[in-house]
Design goal:
single chain; eight-stranded parallel beta sheet; binds manganese (II) ion
Length: 284
Amino acid sequence: MPAHLMFADADFPFKQARFVVLGAPFDRTSSFRHGARLAPNAIREASYNFEDYMMEYDLCISDTMLCDIGDVEECGSGEEVVQAVQTVVKKIVESGKFPILLGGEHTATIGALHCFKDAGVVFIDAHLDYREEYLGERFSHACTCRRAAEVVGVENIAVIGVRSISLDEKEMEERPFFIPAYFVHEEGIEQAVKGALEGIKRDRIYLSIDMDGLDPAYAPGVATPEPFGLTPQDVKWCIDYLAPKLVGVDVMEVCPPYDNGNTSALAARLIRCAIASVFKVHPL
Ligand code: MN
Ligand code: MN
């Protein structure tokens, strides 16, 4: 039994696991609110709020062969956390298991993407994260999508829920396909997700959820809250629709010092949805 705090119902040893939780307690490049490094354990604690049985999927999380291997070590720079996450996710993927990354700053996602160079990436995010660098840092939370494009190709990325981009990002000739939150409000999440997948010509999808993609009413405890966001139901629909294609998931940018507990709870619940949904379409 590992000594660290574990995600609820993660009772399986690594060898027998199908899903593996990994934390990235990193927030060194946070520009507004600090504290996302505390998120992995806050999400783990919140995960004990829920019943093992998930009524809408009619299955128990404890039956999905879930393991929690703890956190990568706290890192000095964004580049170091990317390297550290990549090393561990590589082991998870090479063992034929499904990685679930808990952030921490969005920067850490890039480490996981290095293990899925042939996959498409769907981001849920209020921001485009497409700056070349931010505050002198290339591996910053504000550059996640830009670094992702260097790994999987900009044409294989779609960002859903965007409602904040810089003028530079707007005027760029080449940028990732994105669907504004306003489109989701008007046309519905189904049109948004189907539209996102149209451009991505890849069968395997990595889903990266920046919790600020959700409205601050549902997810107040994030590093950079942005009004007019998505609902939890929108994101759940996205998870369930993508499940047959998913190869990995992360839930990033929870910032516990600014949370009333609901953001961590929602993050834990979305992770449980992803596990249940993927397990349901690919039962062993
Ligand atoms: Mn964001
Ligand atoms: Mn982000």
